[in-house]
Amino acid sequence: MKTTTLRNPLRLNIVTTLALFSVLMALMLSACGDAATALPAAPAATTAAAAAPAATTAAAAAAAASNATSPKGWDQFTSPEGKFSILMPSNRERKTQVSTTSAGPIDVISFQGGNDDASYTVSYADYPEEVVKNAEAAAIMKGVLGGQVKGLGGTISGEEKELTLGAVPGRTATFKMSSGGVGGTAISRVYLAGNRLYQLILIHADSAKPSDADINTFFDSFKVNS
Description:
- The strands form 2 sheets. Strands 3, 4, 5, 6, 7, 8, 9 and 10 form an 8-stranded antiparallel sheet that branches.
- The chain is 28% helix and 37% strand.
- The protein has helices at 11-15, 17-32, 57-69, 129-133, 137-151, 212-220, and strands at 74-79, 84-89, 93-101, 104-114, 118-126, 155-156, 161-165, 168-179, 182-193, 196-205, 223-224.
């Protein structure tokens, strides 16, 4: 699917968000400590989306109900390979990026959609289990959020908070940034499910803030599937 072209000056920050995720891989491993250096390379993930299993009647009905209440141009997206589901813009684009780290190459799979004023992105990456088990989940996620702020040239606005998604720990932060004289806001949530890191980030121009309903729909509809 093709992503709508972003035309305002904030585009520089929005479209570099995907490239930023590769940088965050190294930051996350750094937060984990020296245990990463001796590990073999992580196996490469397939770049082709896994075929979704046939939906049951009940699942199809649930998806239809979700779409009925979702913002215009959005739909329920389920990633069998990523083991998550979310309501987000239907013009999303899937990308695979490889981050070279001290623990070997790590694949970052991301899905990004939006319009001229806002970008909605969800991504995931798997880390060597030895790295994750030797670090505190809170420290890892705090390091990732700090990397986002630094990578996008932003400043934290408001309190950084811990989250939970069932038994999955998470963390959220909101930060301000600007590009070409245009002010923008980024809202980020990160979750660590086992050795898989999920990142959800919404970047919007301050002059065209999405409705609270759209923002809540994007973040609150995210589910980690078994």
